[in-house]
Amino acid sequence: MSQAAHRSKPLDLSLYFVTDPRMPGERGLPSVVEAALRGGITALQLRDKEASDADYLAMARALAPLARASGIPFLLNDRPHLVETAGADGVHVGQEDLPVAEARRLIGPDRVLGLSVETPALAAAIDPAIVDYAGIGPVSPTATKSDHKAPIGLGGLREAHARCPVPAVAIGGIGPANAADIMKCGVDGIALVSAICSAADPEQAARTLLRTIREATR
């Protein structure tokens, strides 16, 4: 994949790994990402709300080549002004971050832009001329984001997906136990953090999740 993933290239959101800087512990985030890539993740997002731009950029520059070598998109979280410098393929923003039109202006027309939506109404309001995919959730309670909105459950996920004009990935409290049920709601993939990042064997965790996803969508 080129440094800037063209928006016309289909996104494979099947197994979307969102990183947490603290979960890997002494293993280090790059080693966990390498293992997850071997296990088959299809998209990677660097999320670290507390890092300075300098520290965030340093980690992004370490992860971008790993994703590129595996041919999957690498996205930043909330920092569109760093996308080009980091060599990222795009950015994911939330409802409380800068407006999506401004994020699009900052990253240009050819990079990937994702948007978090917490309700069916927000999903329906997405402008597909600006946004490439949606992250719908949280589906279930999650400890990886302390300020998350109320979980929407499977029913809310189905409704939000049905009203969403762009591809959608479910997020929030997802793991091996509920991945199949979530995929059966019609979404294009699942985004998760701890199910891979805190796993004793991230490669095997990713491989098992990907198999579950594929079996659920046959």
Q: How does this structure look, described?
A:
The chain has nine helices and eight strands. The protein has an eight-stranded parallel beta barrel with strand order 1-2-3-4-5-6-7-8, surrounded by four helices. Strand 7, helix 7 and strand 8 form a beta-alpha-beta unit. Helix 1 runs parallel beside helix 2 and helix 1 runs parallel beside helix 9. The two termini are 27 Å apart.
Please supply descriptive tags for the structure shown above.
single chain, 218 residues, alpha/beta, 8-stranded parallel beta barrel, 8 strands, 16% strand, disordered N terminus
Task: Summarize the entry for a quick read.
The chain is of the alpha/beta class and 218 residues long.
Large-scale geometry: globular
Q: What fraction strand? A: 15-25%
Helix/strand structural class: alpha/beta
Helix content: 25-40%
Mean pLDDT: 93
How many strand units? 8
The strands making up the biggest β-sheet line up spatially as 1-2-3-4-5-6-7-8
Poorly predicted spans? 1-6
Rg estimate, integer Å:
16 Å
Q: What does the largest sheet look like?
A: 8 strands, parallel, barrel
Count every helix, treating DSSP H or I runs of 4 or more residues as helices. 9
Query: Secondary-structure element order, as H and E?
Result: EHEHEHEHEHEHEHEHH
Distance between the amino and carboxyl termini = 27 Å
Helix and strand layout, with pairings?
Blueprint: E1 15-18, H1 29-39, E2 43-46, H2 53-70, E3 74-77, H3 83-86, E4 90-93, H4 100-107, E5 112-117, H5 120-124, E6 133-136, H6 153-163, E7 168-171, H7 179-183, E8 189-192, H8 194-197, H9 202-216
Parallel strand pairs: 1-2, 1-8, 2-3, 3-4, 4-5, 5-6, 6-7, 7-8
Helix pairs in contact: 1-2, 1-9
